Amino acid sequence: MRLIAAMSGGVDSAVAAARAVDAGHDVTGVHLALSRNPKSYRSGARGCCSIEDAGDARRAADVIGIPFFVWDMSDEFADEVVDDFIAEYTAGRTPNPCLRCNEKIKFAAVLERAVALGFDGVVTGHYARLVTSEGTAGEVVELHRAVDHGKDQSYVLGVLTQDQLARSVFPLGDDPKTLVREEAARRGLQVANKPDSHDICFIADGDNAGWLADKLGPRPGPIVDETGAEVGAHDGAYAFTIGQRKGLRLGVPAADGKPRFVLDIEPVSGTVTVGPREHLAIDAIEGIKPLWCDEPPVGPLACTVQLRAHGDEHRATVTVDGDVVRVELADPATGIAPGQACVIYEGTRVVGSATIARTSRSVAA
Question: By CB distance 3.0 to 4.6 Å, which of 200, 201, 262, 266 could disulfide with 244?
């Protein structure tokens, strides 16, 4: 196959490209320029989207022996990821920009351009596995968790459709990260020991609240307890997320002296409600904007769901009603915010995902 290798400048995408070449594919490396102003993004060898990464990706392509290009996708990234991030926080929700980037940029815009140029698909360094099986309508490409659960990235790929999965190649899903780094060193790739990235690439210093304040300006409002009594004030509700404990700067301590957590964010009035940890517990979720890796479930599905990028799996029953996904959790989960993704699993297989719109709370005894 003719493949585009999406090369971030990190070790994973470099080894994935090299393995695709070893497998006999005709591979062309591509690095995505995502910032309209590169100085506004973080610098340093952070493993994704930094200023130095294009050079690291180019050097890796030279070692592998493949053609290399830089694609400017800064407009698409600003429209689909950065602007969406701002809009979601403004609406009192907590988005996942990396998941959005996978959906709209790496596996939509890139794949669309690749196919238009005559390529068959895209190879990336994501830790996930693809398994081909027989479905009711023919061959189905299933998305599964990686063997290394500590590096598994199937959660942020749960937005991919069957058409996108059929044109995707994930060569790293069967190996732990340690072996990938060792292989990179053997291949002479300078990125073998480059650190992974954990921050949002377009927020250079990692200060989400400060970045949002600069974009949105002060929007003061009250912090109240569950009775409605004002216990503090803030300069912008966008600086908070459900489950947050630190940085609340409450002027009135809780009667029992225990820490308080953000329970709710009301974006219109700017009211942030805080309360005890046990009041964060939820046992039901309503999801919207579902995306299915194949066909949606028919009837109640006994499954597990993952509610954060590096969170635990929760036993659940999922029911789909058109564009609404209802999730009943067998055991309560805490700190779950609207805007996050609920990714549905059947064993290790990803069924699909939905954006969390509402949650129902269970107060622990």
Answer: 262
pLDDT (mean) for 150-161: 94
Active-site residue, from 49, 201, 293, 303: 201
Q: What is the pLDDT of residue 25?
A: 98
Q: Residue 342: which of 300, 313, 321 has the closest Cα? A: 313
Per-residue pLDDT for 37 more than 70?
Answer: no
pLDDT of 198 > 80? The answer is: no
Question: What pTM did the predictor assign?
Answer: 0.90
At residue 111, φ and ψ (nearest 5 deg) are: -65, -40
The amino acid present at 189, given as its one-letter code, is L
Give the pair of three-digit tokens for residue 251. 């002027």
* Residue positions counted in the chain: 365
Sheet holding 261-266, edge to edge: 230-234, 221-224, 271-275, 261-266
CB 2 within 8 A of CB 25: yes
Please say whether the beta carbons of 358 and 93 come within 8 A.
Answer: no
The predicted-structure confidence for 82-118, as pLDDT tens digits, reads as follows: 999 999 998 888 888 988 998 899 888 899 999 999 9
Query: Which residue, 29, 34, 36, 37, is CA-closest to 13?
Result: 29
Active site residue 293: no
120 is in an annotated binding site: no
To the question of whether residue 24 is assigned a binding role by annotation, the answer is no
Kindly state the tokens that stand for 267.
């974006």
Q: What is the pLDDT of residues 121-143, one digit of tens each?
A: 999 999 999 999 887 668 999 99
Report which residue type is found at 45: A
Is 49 a residue of the active site?
A: no
Please indicate if the annotation marks 47 as binding a ligand.
Answer: no
Catalytic residue among 48, 49, 98, 101: 101
